[in-house]
Specification:
Layout (H helix, E strand, L loop, with lengths): L2 E7 L7 H9 L7 E5 L8 H9 L5 E4 L2 H4 L3 H14 L3 E4 L13 H38 L15 H9 L5 H8 L3 H21 L1
Parallel strand pairs: 1-2, 1-3, 3-4
Helix pairs in contact: 4-5, 6-7, 7-8
Length: about 210
């Protein structure tokens, strides 16, 4: 029997130290600890799939919590069943002792473990859905209050009209004009288009 540990954080700037500390406490060999730094929305993860290829019947896999395995309710349940029934490995969820397939190998034990797994997976995905919903509601409420979202718009340099006129008349190329304004060419083109529209609108109004 070989012992493995699976660690996942959602992005490269998140810290996996707590999970690695737990694996070290359980004496999981470092070479058998697989780390993914990406979303848990599905199981298309390089480290997880490498671990999957190495797993043999009666091996043991530790994970810190059920949401480290994944966040999609249906896929977590499906993957759990694949690991335990098809691959024949044991799984231990460190923060949830009830999810330890080494215990209760009989039909009742398997049934109880599956029930707990499904409840926890549903709760994890439901909370994720609620967070997204609250974020959308917060954004919409902010918009109704007139709050501008995203990065603040950088003001145009005072001499932008003169630079715009020089560029439009062909005196300077776009690359030079953008450099003088302290912006990229794409941004410069965007700002010149906005100025052109304002000029056209003003002429119509006049």
């Amino acid at each position: 029997m070989s012992i493995y540990g699976y660690v996942r954080v959602s992005s490269c700037d998140q810290n996996e130290d707590r999970q690695l500390f737990a694996m070290n406490e359980l004496k999981v060999p470092k070479k058998n600890v697989y780390i993914d730094k990406q979303s848990g929305k599905d199981f298309d993860r390089p480290a997880y799939n490498r671990m999957l290829k190495r797993l043999r019947r009666d091996d043991l896999v530790y994970i810190k919590s059920i949401d480290r395995l994944g966040r999609n309710y249906n896929e977590v349940v499906e993957q759990w069943q694949y690991l335990t029934r098809i691959k024949g490995v044991d799984i231990v969820v460190i923060e949830m002792p009830l999810l330890d397939t080494r215990r209760g190998k009989d039909l009742l034990g398997t049934f109880l473990s599956d029930i707990v797994l499904q409840v926890l997976s549903f709760v994890a995905e439901n909370e994720r859905t609620n967070i997204r919903s609250r974020q959308r509601e917060g954004i919409e409420a902010a918009r109704r209050r007139g709050v501008r979202l995203g990065r603040p718009v950088k003001p145009l340099p005072d001499d932008f009209p003169d630079i715009y006129t020089s560029w439009q008349s062909g005196e300077i190329p776009a690359s030079r004009a953008a450099q003088m304004c302290g912006m990229s060419r794409a941004t410069f083109y965007k700002k010149t288009e906005q100025m052109r529209q304002k000029t056209d609108q003003k002429e119509k109004n006049d």
